[in-house]
Write a structure and sequence with these properties.
The chain has 184 residues and is an all-alpha fold. It has 7 helices and no strands. Helix 1 runs antiparallel to helix 3. The radius of gyration is 19 Å and the shape is globular. It starts with a helix and ends in a 14-residue tail after the last helix.
């Protein structure tokens, strides 16, 4: 079960690290994130503090997950934060709002069901990580366990971070009428 815990910690740490870096990479990117917070029903005067709190919480998750002793707290915080973010997305969708997903800083894809599903899956990963940590033996993970965790977590984190790009890539495109050969 140590591999499950380590995979969950690494996957979530990479995803939240990408979220923090993406939002703080440029001033304009953070300003756009703050602007998007208001579109989730947060009053304008609270948008900036809520955005700062969200980024600080994401950073705390990363730090907590990197240390074995604090990893359970990081997994609980990750699950809780994902629950709050999912509730915000569902609330916006119920109001008919579809603000752009600024989950990783830049991005113009409107929020939708895939973001809800993504967050629920990540919350389940956090809970599985807790379960794995609770049932694992107290020793440090072995080399093969670390390799397995890296081999699973890194590609999955890339898929999560680039989910909107992948969805756009595989989305059906409108068909264009074709002209018969030889006619212009």
């Amino acid at each position: 079960m140590r591999a499950l815990e380590l995979t969950a910690r690494l996957l979530l740490a990479l995803v939240f690290l990408a979220a923090v870096v993406g939002k703080l990479r440029t001033r304009a990117g953070f300003a756009e994130f703050v602007g998007s917070v208001g579109q989730f029903g947060v009053p304008t005067r609270w948008a900036s503090p809520v955005a700062r709190l969200a980024v600080a919480t994401e950073a705390a998750v990363v730090v907590l997950l990197t240390v074995g002793r604090t990893a359970p707290a990081g997994l609980v915080l990750a699950a809780g934060l994902l629950g709050v973010l999912t509730a915000a997305i569902v609330g916006a969708l119920r109001r008919g709002a579809r603000p752009a997903c600024r989950c990783f800083g830049v991005g113009a894809a409107p929020i939708g069901a895939r973001h809800v599903i993504r967050n629920v899956v990540l919350a389940v990963v956090a809970l599985l990580g807790l379960l794995g940590g609770a049932t694992a033996a107290g020793s440090s993970p072995s080399g093969p366990t670390v390799l397995l965790a890296v081999g699973v977590a890194v590609p999955l984190a890339a898929v999560v971070v680039r989910l909107d790009d992948l969805a756009a890539l595989f989305a059906p495109t409108p068909s264009r009428p074709t002209r018969p050969a030889g006619r212009h």
